[in-house]
Amino acid sequence: MLTAGNLHLLCWLGRSGSSWLKREGDGATPKGAWHLREAFIRPGMRAASGLKCRVLRRNRGWCDDPADRNYNRLVKLPYPGCESLWRDDELYDVIVVLGYNDCPRRRGKGSAIFFHLAAPKGRPTQGCIAVSRKDMLKVLALCGPETRIKVW
Fold first, then answer.
1. Average of pLDDT values for 15-44?
2. Fewest CB atoms less than 10 Å from the CB: which of 6, 43, 78, 151?
3. How many CA atoms does the CB half-sphere of 131 hold within 13 Å?
4. Is residue 77 packed enough to be buried (19+ CB in 10 Å), middle (13-18) or exposed (0-12)?
5. pTM for the complete prediction?
6. What residue segments make up the domains of the chain, in order of their start?
7. Distance from CA of residue 59 to its chain's centroid?
C-alpha cells in the first residue's frame, strides 16, 4: 500500500519484495526513504507536479551495467548495457527517478529504480514501485523537490 498524504493507494513492488541488501538484477525494491529526483512524461500526457518534469524522448535510456562509467544514470541511445526508457507498453509513460544509489553510486547495488505506472491488471516490477495511471497523477500533484517515498 502506498500512502500519500491522506491517500492510500494500491501499489506493486519488485518480484522479490523489498530488501535492505539490494543488488543489481535481484528483483527487489530497495528499502529506505528515497527522494523523487525528477519525472519523465511521455509526449501528449499532462501531469501537474512540483517535481522537475521532462518530456520523455525515444533516444533515452538508463545504464544498468555496473562496469560502465554511467552506471545508474540517464544515457542517450544507442548505448550498450542500458534499458530503453521508451517502451511499447504503458509502464513508462510516466517515470519518476528515485534517489536510490545515486549519490554516491555504488556499482552492483542496483540501478533504474523508478516510480512508474503499473501494468493494467497489476503485477510485480523488476525492483521499482508501480501504481495505476490515475493514482500516479494524484500522487504527482502532491509532490515537490523535498518529497520522499518510503519503502519498508
1. 97
2. 6
3. 22
4. middle
5. 0.95
6. 2-151
7. 18
With a cut of 90, say whether residue 5 has pLDDT above it.
no
Q: Using CA of residue 15, residue 16, residue 21, residue 23, what is the dihedral sign?
A: negative
d(CA 120, CA 57): 23
- What CATH number does domain 2-151 carry, 3.40.50, 3.30.60, 3.90.1200, 2.40.440? 2.40.440
Which residues 6+ apart lie within 8 Å of 95 measured at CB?
39, 40, 41, 56, 85, 114, 115, 116
**C-alpha cell of residue 134:** 490515475
Q: What is the DSSP string of 17-33?
A: -EESS--TTS-PEEPEE
User: pLDDT-based confidence at 51, cuts 50/70/90?
Assistant: very high
Percent of the chain with pLDDT over 70: 100
For residue 113, count other CB atoms closer than 10 A to its CB.
25
Residues 12 and 117 sit within 8 Å (Cβ to Cβ): no
pLDDT at 6: 85
Rounded Cα distance, 106 and 35, in Å: 17
Length of the chain, please? 152
Q: Output the nine-digit C-alpha cell for 11.
A: 501499489
